[in-house]
Amino acid sequence: MNHLKILFTVIGLLILLPGNDDSTVITSNQQSQNEIPKDKVKVLNFGTFHMGFTTDANTTEFDEHDRENQIKVHEIAEKLSAFEPTVIIVETPPEQNENLREAYHSYKENPDMFIENPTEIELLAFELGRLSGAERIYGIDHKMRYNYMIGQFIMKNDIDSERYDAYSDNLLQFFPSVDVDLDALSLHEKLKLTNHDRFLDFLITVNADRLTYTANEGGFEGADEAAKYYQRNLRMYSNLHRVDLDEDERVFILMGASHTAFFRDFMSRDPKYEMVDTFNYLE
Fold it and tell me: Is 19 in a helix, a strand, or coil?
């Protein structure tokens, strides 16, 4: 009898010990899932091109002063308002939040007010917030300089100049599913493409990852520049965490789509947020 007790005790200990068998992994995963909060902050993570003045190297042809264009943007805002956001997040530095809130509330009181140089923030975010009744708006941008053209200044003894040059000559050749003329699309179709997962992948590649192919012998100049863009987006993500949000909030984030791409990746692993399907609201 004592031998049986010892045997069962040993079996019990073996079951509790970590191992590589499937049953242990399943038990571990089930425990991890139980630890994840069930209530998450709902987020509509929306990418756009910059509709007004921008210092970005790549721009999209768009006349933000044209009334027809403004009407089309407002139609997009009306579609997205079905998400019913309670908080609006935009690509401005937090240091400007007071001015941002004043401008937003002025717009809500008078949506026909004259705005000298409107951007996607005034045209889309403000209108969406007005339609949905969102009271809170925050900027989370963090400016950092980085040289995305560093490959042009690296000597030809770099890691893989042929591959880098192929990327630089026509990056979209490696992303055929999104290789279209953006300027030939309607605004609606353009924004649909911009928020496509493969297009977001392309934006991370063109803005950062391709730089890892270039460096002087023994150096990491390209990778270090790419890291700066990752760092900028991580700091922006950190700014998002500074906004007081609970599980009842519905958050609309509007940024240049390369930032949207990084946030998509960050949020996919973050137990605090749950990204809704953009195309549930953009179709």
Answer: coil
Q: How many domains does the chain have?
A: 2
pTM of the model: 0.83
Amino acid sitting at position 101 = R
Which tens digits make up the pLDDT trace of 109-137?
Answer: 999 988 888 999 999 999 999 999 999 99
* Angle between helical axes of 187-194 and 67-80 (0-180°, round to 10): 50
Q: Any bridge partners for residue 139, and if so which?
A: 90
pLDDT, one tens digit per residue, over 34-58 is 555 568 999 999 999 988 545 544 5
Tokens 């590649």, residue?
A: 205
Burial of 161 (0-12, 13-18, 19+ CB in 10 A): middle
Are residue 108 and residue 15 in the same domain, yes or no? no
Least confident of 96-100, 206-210, 263-267: 206-210
Number of residues in the chain: 283
Q: Do 124 and 211 fall within a single domain? A: yes
Q: Which long-range contacts (CB under 8 A, 24 or more apart) does 91-94 make?
A: 91/121, 91/139, 91/140, 91/141, 91/254, 91/255, 91/256, 91/259, 92/121, 92/139, 92/141, 93/139, 93/141, 93/142, 93/143, 94/138, 94/139, 94/140, 94/141, 94/239, 94/242
Same domain for 117 and 8?
Answer: no
CB atoms within 10 A of CB 72: 17
Residues 11 and 95 in one domain: no
Compute the average pLDDT of residues 103-114: 94
